[in-house]
Automatic annotation (TrEMBL):
PROSITE patterns hit by this protein: GUANYLATE_CYCLASE_2
Cross-referenced InterPro entries: A/G_cyclase (IPR001054), Nucleotide_cyclase (IPR029787)
Keyword Transmembrane helix: yes
SUPFAM superfamilies: Nucleotide cyclase (SSF55073)
A Gene Ontology BP annotation from the UniProt entry: cyclic nucleotide biosynthetic process
Top-level taxon: Eukaryota
Transmembrane segments: 44-69
Domain Guanylate cyclase: 126-269
Species: Neobodo designis
Keyword set, alphabetical order: Membrane, Transmembrane, Transmembrane helix
Protein name, per record: Guanylate cyclase domain-containing protein
Length: 269
């Protein structure tokens, strides 16, 4: 009769529905199905719960991965920092050893303690002046490499023997090197310094004799250990044998006043 009829049913694929019959011209009757709003809300809620659960799971996995990689990165940084500190300590040790070759130990300690006037009067110091005879004439006949090797050999010998006899290399200029003994007695009393002058002079004499023996093959009465040390350098390059030079050594003993001249960026003892 042209009127719209509605039918309520409880079975539409297991979902409560509301069905409406509506006649359409030249077409068979069609059914418009409307899902109940409560069912829609329930399905949306389930979807939201599943989505939130997945999101929480993904966030948890992401946080776990972030924590894991953060720990790995932190361990790597800690290891690198330890290696860096070890390297810094090693370089610091090398630097201190190099500085100790330029400034005597007691003077260096006072300088590090920021003592304003780093100078002291010594009752008696022993000096040795080592001159390489005709060194300038020898240099004219040597190649640049041989000059560098020869000078390096001399300085290695100087430092090895100086450490053995507690002698400090004060300065080198030209073909002359100046050494001093007795600077370590700076903290001792004046009486102790006077008693130690004889021992310092004796040590410096032994030092000078050993240097002469090492640089000249005419003498063979130096210690076996230092002999092996010298032979190692003399045989370092067979194509360029280590040349033999004559040395001239002068000794002096007396009171002196020593200290740092420039306490700025480049302290000069």
């Amino acid at each position: 009769d042209g009127a719209t009829k509605s039918y309520d049913g409880d079975d539409y694929s297991g979902t409560p529905v509301h069905a409406v019959m509506s006649p359409v011209s030249n077409l068979s009757s069609s059914v418009i199905v409307k899902v109940d709003s409560e069912v829609v809300r329930s399905e949306i809620l389930q979807f939201v719960v599943v989505f939130v659960g997945l999101a929480i799971a993904l966030i948890a996995v992401g946080l776990a991965a972030l924590i894991f990689f953060s720990q790995q990165t932190l361990r790597r940084i800690e290891n690198e920092w330890r290696s860096f500190k070890v390297g810094i300590e090693a370089e610091k040790l090398k630097f201190n050893e190099m500085i100790e070759q330029l400034v005597p130990g007691p003077v260096l300690q006072r300088y590090r303690a920021r003592v304003r006037c780093v100078a002291n009067t010594h009752t008696g110091l022993s000096f040795a002046y080592i001159d390489l005879c005709s060194f300038s004439e020898h240099v004219k006949q040597w190649s640049p490499r041989q000059v560098v090797r020869t000078v390096g050999y001399f300085f290695h010998v100087y430092h090895a023997v100086a450490a053995k006899y507690d002698v400090f290399r004060l300065r080198s200029f030209g073909d002359v090197a100046v050494f001093v003994s007795g600077l370590e007695r700076e903290s001792e009393s004046e009486h102790q310094q006077r008693e130690g002058v004889a021992q310092d002079a004796l040590n410096l004499g032994k030092f000078a004799a050993c240097i002469t023996q090492l640089l000249s093959p005419a003498f063979s009465h130096y210690p076996q250990r230092l002999a092996r040390f010298a032979d190692c350098f003399k045989n370092d390059a067979k194509d360029q044998p280590m040349p033999v030079v004559r040395t001239r050594i002068g000794l002096h003993n007396g009171p002196a006043h020593a200290g740092l001249v420039d306490v700025g960026k480049t302290p000069f003892f």
